[in-house]
């Protein structure tokens, strides 16, 4: 089975919303359909310079990067990806059987972009996919910047309850939302209909696995973790100690007060870390 909407009506409503948000993309862009072993992957390209590939969190699509792309594209070639197997403009033709398949898919995407090396930046599920590639198919990866990555254990009930609470706040009027959640309420309100209409898509992804110590030791590119001190997905202190003891080329940063929605809560920090990471010498990142 491949990913698909439950019916045509659901697809039509989703893509009408997708197009509305696409028009908010603040800089000129080109849409590419990159052929892979698992189907055509939609990639949105903006800017010029050192290439960065942006991978969204689950259900986010390339459009979830619209609040930050202008500053990124002013200095870099930015590629924002619709992850195949999830709702978006990518078209899955073959299912993911395992995490190796997901690494093959992303390796195909990078090969299709035509650069020798790219920096991978991912949020949550996207960060997991970036790290998964770095541990399995590292050719073409210049480095990985992982915001709140999956793949490091999860207190399932705690995360589900947090997710429900976070999404419920997206319905609050802006003045109230601004009081209860950090960040610009406009971003949550803009993405809300796309996320909720995407729930009528039957996602087809491989089960997420937990990274082993041996997999982490195999990472041979500069890698930076940005973690929320109040994350419901992972234990930031434990993960920081673990990866820094295993991998010499990994650095971690724990953001005080931040939750799993770190990118929404700390937009300026998100932009600053991406720009610093994509610099030639990775200057500007916290030690």
List its traits.
single chain, 287 residues, alpha/beta, Rossmann fold, nine-stranded mixed β-sheet, two-stranded antiparallel ribbon, Carboxylesterase_BioH, AB_hydrolase_1
Can you tell me about this structure?
This is Pimeloyl-ACP methyl ester carboxylesterase. InterPro entries: AB_hydrolase_1, AB_hydrolase_fold, Carboxylesterase_BioH. One of its GO terms (molecular function) is catalytic activity. It is built from eleven helices and eleven strands. It has 287 residues and is an alpha/beta fold. The mean pLDDT is 93.
Nearest-integer average pLDDT? 93
The CATH homologous superfamily is termed Alpha/Beta hydrolase fold, catalytic domain
Beta strand %:
15-25%
Order of helices and strands: EHEEEHEEHEHEHHHEHEHEHH
Number of domains: 1
The best one-word shape is globular
CATH topology: Rossmann fold
Q: What's the total number of strands?
A: 11
- Residue runs with pLDDT of under 50 for 5 or more positions: none
Number of helices: 11
CATH architecture: 3-Layer(aba) Sandwich
Query: Biggest sheet, open or closed, and with what strands and sense?
Result: 9 strands, mixed
Q: Radius of gyration, Cα only, in angstroms?
A: 18 Å
CATH class: Alpha Beta
Distance between the termini: 45 Å
Could you estimate the helical fraction of the residues in percent?
25-40%
Structural class: alpha/beta
GO molecular function: catalytic activity
InterPro entries: AB_hydrolase_1 (IPR000073), AB_hydrolase_fold (IPR029058), Carboxylesterase_BioH (IPR050228)
Protein name: Pimeloyl-ACP methyl ester carboxylesterase
């Amino acid at each position: 089975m491949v990913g698909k909407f439950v019916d045509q009506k659901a697809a039509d409503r989703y893509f009408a919303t997708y197009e509305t948000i696409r028009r908010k993309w603040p800089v000129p862009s080109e849409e590419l359909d990159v052929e892979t072993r698992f189907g055509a992957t939609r990639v949105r390209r903006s800017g010029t310079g050192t290439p960065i590939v942006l991978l969204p969190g689950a259900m986010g699509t390339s459009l979830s990067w619209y609040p930050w792309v202008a500053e990124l594209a002013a200095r870099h070639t930015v590629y924002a990806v619709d992850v195949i197997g999830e709702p978006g403009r990518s078209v899955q033709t073959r299912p993911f059987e395992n995490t190796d398949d997901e690494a093959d898919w992303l390796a195909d995407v990078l090969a299709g972009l035509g650069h020798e090396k790219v920096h991978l930046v991912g949020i949550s599920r996207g960060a997991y996919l970036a790290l998964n590639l770095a541990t399995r198919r590292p050719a073409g990866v210049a480095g990985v910047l992982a915001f709140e990555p999956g793949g490091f254990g999860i207190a399932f009930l705690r995360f589900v309850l947090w997710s429900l609470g976070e999404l419920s706040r997206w319905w609050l009027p802006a003045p109230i939302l601004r009081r209860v959640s950090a960040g610009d309420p406009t971003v949550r309100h803009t993405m809300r209909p796309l996320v909720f209409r995407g729930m009528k898509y039957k996602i087809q992804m491989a089960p997420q696995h937990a990274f082993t110590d041996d997999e982490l030791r195999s990472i041979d590119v500069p890698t930076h973790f940005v973690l929320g001190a109040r994350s419901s997905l992972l234990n930031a202190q434990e993960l920081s100690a673990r990866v820094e003891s295993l991998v010499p080329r990994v650095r971690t940063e724990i953001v005080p007060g931040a939750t799993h929605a770190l990118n929404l809560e700390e937009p300026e920090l998100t932009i600053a870390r991406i720009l610093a990471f994509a610099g030639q010498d990775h200057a500007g990142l916290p030690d």
